[in-house]
């Protein structure tokens, strides 16, 4: 029973989840880039996450999954670099929005601005 709970569903959901995450980040990256909702390199950060995934998958399949049956943990680990850049871009953008909003009377969610 524990093999079923831990093993088989992970084998199915992990690749599906990674595919949805990679394609979703690619779509988000394109939307952020086109909408220009972020400035500078921050605008490219979500796109880096999606593009790395799209570039990594064929490489993983040809050089690691077909010969060994397992993806390369190194390539998956390198994927954390675009994620770190995305996190920093969001954090620094949120900080700049916060600095802009403290200059005036900005209402909070649900507030009336008084």
Describe the structure.
- About 10% of the residues are buried.
- This protein has helices spanning about 1-35, 45-70, 75-80, 80-100.
- Helix 1 packs antiparallel against helix 2 (about 45-70) and helix 2 (about 45-70) runs antiparallel to helix 4 (about 80-100).
- Helix content is about 75%, strand content about 0%.
- The protein has about 110 residues and is mainly alpha-helical.
- Keywords: Membrane, Transmembrane, Transmembrane helix.
Give the rounded overall mean pLDDT: 80
Number of strands: 0
Order of helices and strands: HHHH
Strand content range: under 5%
| Major beta-sheet overview | none
Uncertain residue ranges: 105-111
Proportion in helices: over 70%
Gross geometry: elongated
Radius of gyration: 19 Å
> Separation of termini?
59 Å
Give the helix/strand class.
mainly alpha
Write the layout of secondary structure elements.
Elements: H1 2-35, H2 45-68, H3 73-78, H4 80-101
Keywords:
75% helix, transmembrane, 4 helices, 0% strand, membrane, mainly alpha, transmembrane helix, 114 residues
Summarize the structure.
The chain crosses the membrane at residues 12-35, 47-66, 72-91. The chain has helices at residues 2-35, 45-68, 73-78, 80-101.
């Amino acid at each position: 029973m524990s093999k079923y709970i831990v093993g088989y569903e992970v084998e199915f959901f992990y690749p599906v989840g990674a595919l949805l995450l990679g394609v979703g980040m690619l779509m988000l990256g394109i939307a952020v880039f086109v909408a220009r909702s972020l400035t500078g390199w921050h605008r490219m950060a979500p796109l880096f996450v999606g593009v790395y995934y799209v570039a990594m998958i064929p490489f993983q399949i040809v050089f690691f999954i077909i010969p060994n049956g397992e993806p390369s943990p190194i390539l998956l680990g390198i994927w954390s670099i675009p994620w770190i850049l995305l996190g920093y871009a969001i954090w620094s953008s949120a900080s700049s929005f916060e600095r802009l909003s403290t200059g005036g009377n900005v209402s909070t969610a649900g507030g009336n601005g008084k």
